[in-house]
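Researcher: Good morning. I'm working through a list of sequences from a screen, and I'd like to move beyond sequence-only analysis. For each chain I'm collecting a predicted structure so we can compare shapes side by side. This is the next one on the list. No need for commentary yet; just the structure.
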Amino acid sequence: MKRNFNEWLSNFKDSIATWKYYTDFEKAYTNIDTIKVELNILNSLVGSKNMENEFRDIVKSYPKVLKVIPILIAKRENEIKIADADKNYVFNFAKPNYTIDEYVTFMERTGLFDLLQNHIIHSLVDYVMGVEVGMDTNGRKNRTGDAMEDLVESYLQKAGLVKDNTYFKEMYISEIQSRWGIDLSSISNTGKTEKRFDFVVANGTTIYGIEANFYSGGGSKLNETARSYKTIALESKEIEGFEFVWFTDGVGWNTAKHNLEEAFDIMEHIYSIADLESGIANKLFN
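Model: Good morning. Structure tokens for this chain:
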């Protein structure tokens, strides 16, 4: 029986956040541990009345403290560019490329001296912990993708599939062709594109290339994804012994409903979390 798109879409979820989705504290702790010594050395500047000279002395004695300065302004890069009316700077904090005086200028004009001198903070380790937690929010997008993949994998296992035996994670087209002798040239643009599937299932008669994603928010990427997967689905129909499967969900799709519906109309195997909960993995792969 033909499924109703609007009914299917209405069951999409607004979140699949796990306990560790919001902040990866372990990652923050690890990042801080690698620079704790340098942060504690710089911490001696907190409340200093002779900031510039003490900073110079510290850098002369412990030049490695420079490497922690970028994180103080919430940057991970070792190089920081500054556009100034007098000069364009490209500060390197891993391999110092300017005089100490110029690094003093950096500290002063970015407001770091003021931060340290006026007791706005008391511990650089605590301060950087806050910075790390704040910056880690940028990783939520990746964690959403990981969470969807983990969810799909749990249902593959629930269906009785075994990793590296009947299902495989992150497998390239070239590996699929080599392992099972299937010609996927129509998908890979005659070998010019090396696509990687999130999962591959082999049940003896059919090889399934699987993609899994979740979108809690909108954006142009959703339209791109729908068009791309629609194309792969159409190309896959001509390949004997191969099926393309797409597990997707998330209320973000409401902003790209038209493109998703086009894919839904032509794809035999497009499923949501609700479909997984209803046992589609077991029906499809066994």
